[in-house]
Amino acid sequence: MLISAGKKRFLIKIKESKMGNSFKKMSFKSKLIFSFIFVSIIPILLVQSISYFNTTSAMKENVNELITYNLAQTEKNLNTTLNSYMDILYQIYTDDEIIELVKKINAETDSAMEISLLRDKLSKLTNSKEGIRSIAILSAGGKTAFYDTLTASSLDSSWMNKNFEKSEFYRNITSSKGSVLIPTSYASQLGDKKYYLFHIANKMVDFNDIRKDAIGVIVISIDEDIIYRACNEVDAKKEAKKSVRSVNFIVDKNGYIISFPDKDLIGANISLYDPAGTNGREDEYTAAARKISYFDSSSIITNSLTSEKNGWIIVNAVDQSFLFSKVYMTQRLTITFGILALLFSIIIIFYVTRNFSGSIGKILHAMKTAQEGELSVRVELDDDGDEMSAIAARFNKMIYKINKLVEEVRAATFKQKEAEIRALEAQINPHFLYNTLDAINWMAIEKDEHEISNMLKSLAQILRYSVNKSNSIVKLREEIEWLKQYIYLQQTRFNYSFECFMEVDEKVLDFNIHKLLLQPFIENVIIHGFEGINKGGVLDIGIKGWENSIMIVIRDNGKGIDPETVSKLNSPDDKEITAKGSGLGVSNVFNRIKMYYGDSGSWQVESETGKGTTITLKIPKL
Q1: How does pLDDT run across 472-517, given as a tens digit for each residue?
Q2: Cα separation, 518 vs 554, whole angstroms
Q3: Count of beta carbons in the 10 Å neighbourhood of residue 89
């Protein structure tokens, strides 16, 4: 069994290998078509899927943000609306005249006149603001004065029974420290229209003696439609349109419906729509929202916000299918256009590959011909300005240059051989120069020309040091000894027109430095800096250790350098110094520093015309 399983795996590998070889053996045109079709379909499907999920997710996030914002704004509108009625309530229970009338009603047995006066005042306040259906004052003595626009009666209220002042409701209001909101309930019906009212109430006290008990309770009854419009921004003269698929309704903290599009549900408890109570308050909101007549979809999204001011819960319900209808339509359009784009792309790729593969065939044929040694071959393509035409043009130029280079190589090879022969003929052994200088030195000694003898010795030392491995690394002390010989010869040559002072820290003498690194700077000072100076030239050379580097300062009191040249010398990438032939001869040394030490080596040139030049070099310790 193991052997057979192993054979099976082996056969699979062979098949995979054959498939790979088959693909490799396909023509370029077939590969291009196959690859495009294979690669384009998968990305399109992925893009469609990712686009759909991202769009849906982004839409949901945006909807949640908008709903959250809408709920916050709704809470503000609701509070603003309620505050406007609270102001009227405040105006009543702080009115001195009304307080005096209530006190008289409590004190007198027959208070019909005071109740009548009080009712007149309440009628004016009732008509002062839209939505107020009734204002009632319940005195502590059990008497009632009210104005009710629904009943238009001084004896019968649309919502209050005769023993209302003795109820727990009255005691709750008088014991409350502030205003009380009373949930919405059915009040009355005029014709086909049912009226649902919610109430705001506050106890009345004698402000001249606030320690006494309340003298009564004032209750303002307001049409539920007022808070419904505040929550849904519906025109007061128009009902909510059935095309609207988003609505806000209000539930109190005990679950009783305060405001709702379908008025028959007002006053019912929200738990009635989820009797099991297992799915939580949010599902109860969703179940209640499905009772709205113009919500056709079963997929409804609900969000809620609890008002910190009064504890009412504002619920937003949105029809999900209506909300995402445009997303679904966009998805269908995207898929349709994607399929059309894919078909169009396949047609284009067939057309392009046919021309493309023809051009490639011509170029391959020309390459094979050139490979066989026929360098006069040329590729003839229509100059369409595309990449294949550019490749063909460059191939023709390349063949032309190859022909030219072949001829140049032949000529250069011939000239090189001639130069090698001449170099061999003109080669002089360095030992011949040293021996000759030594012979001249002894002749100078015999004739008591000791200065000439010293110059010859120095020159011989300079030649030996310079010729032997000119790019090698030496000890700093060797470089300094060589510099002394070189400066001595230059002083002699220029009749001691300048002095040289050298100060070297002994701690750095055994550090390594590249050979002949400093000579071009010294030569530049002597040849150019002291040009025209017959006496008084001063050359200072200071070398010391500085952190992990060797700092070399070369200072002179010569002619100086103009600012433009100084700027170019301080630029590590400037190539114009040597190109313009300034004669300074130090740019090559800067290039050597950059080549030897990279970013670890640096230089700084400071100069002022007529006042000399200072060059500071920093190279790492080797």
Answers
A1: 788 999 889 888 888 888 888 888 889 999 999 999 999 998 888 8
A2: 9
A3: 19
Q: What is the DSSP string of 37-52?
A: HHHHHHHHHHHHHHHH
Q: How far is residue 286's CA from residue 298's CA, in Å, rounded to a whole number?
A: 9
Looking at the predicted structure, is the pLDDT value of residue 429 above 90?
A: no
- Residue 539 confidence (pLDDT): 93
C-alpha–C-alpha distance, residues 348 and 537, integer Å: 81
- With a cut of 90, say whether residue 461 has pLDDT above it: no
Q: Give the whole-angstrom CA distance, residue 261 versus residue 228.
A: 8
In the block, tokens 């350098």 appear at 561
Q: What is the mean pLDDT of residues 17-36?
A: 63
The residue to which tokens 């009338």 are assigned: 101
Is pLDDT above 60 for 70?
yes
Whole-structure pTM value: 0.48
Neighbours of 457 (CB within 10 A): 16
Q: 63 pLDDT exceeds 80?
A: no
Helix %, strand %, coil % for the chain, to 5? Answer: 55, 20, 25
Least confident residue range of 33-37, 238-242, 244-248, 440-444: 238-242
> Helices H, strands E: what count in the chain?
17, 16
Residue 530 structure tokens: 């002291």
- Distance in angstroms (rounded) separating the CA atoms of residues 539 and 496: 12
Closest CA to 39 of 269, 296, 346: 346
Residue 303's beta-bridge partner residues? 316
Section 575-590 average pLDDT: 54
H/E run at residue 276: none
The answer to whether the CB of 118 falls within 8 A of the CB of 226 is no
pLDDT in tens, 152-186: 666 667 677 544 555 677 788 888 888 888 888 88
**Rounded Cα distance, 620 and 600, in Å:** 6
Q: What is the mean pLDDT of the chain?
A: 77
For residues 375 and 399, the answer to whether their CB atoms sit within 8 Å is: yes
Q: What is the mean pLDDT of residues 271-290?
A: 68
The beta strand positions in 205-299, using DSSP E, are 216-223, 246-251, 257-259
d(CA 180, CA 174): 10
Q: How far apart are CA 310 and CA 182, in angstroms?
A: 11
183: closest CA among 200, 163, 202?
200
Distance CA 89, CA 202 (A): 8
Phi/psi at 223 (nearest 5 deg)?
Answer: -65, 135
Cα torsion 492, 498, 500, 501 to 10°: value is 150
Task: Give CA–CA dist 597/619, Å, rounded.
Answer: 7
Burial 220-258 (b: 16+ CB within 10 A, else e): bbbbbbbbbbbbbebeeeeeeeeeebbbbbbbbeeebbb
**Tokens representing residue 302 in the block:** 């609900």
Residue 364 has pLDDT above 90, yes or no: no
Phi then psi dihedrals of residue 238, to 5 deg: -130, 145
State residue 411 phi and psi, 5-degree precision: -65, -40
Torsion sign over Cα 225, 228, 232, 233: positive
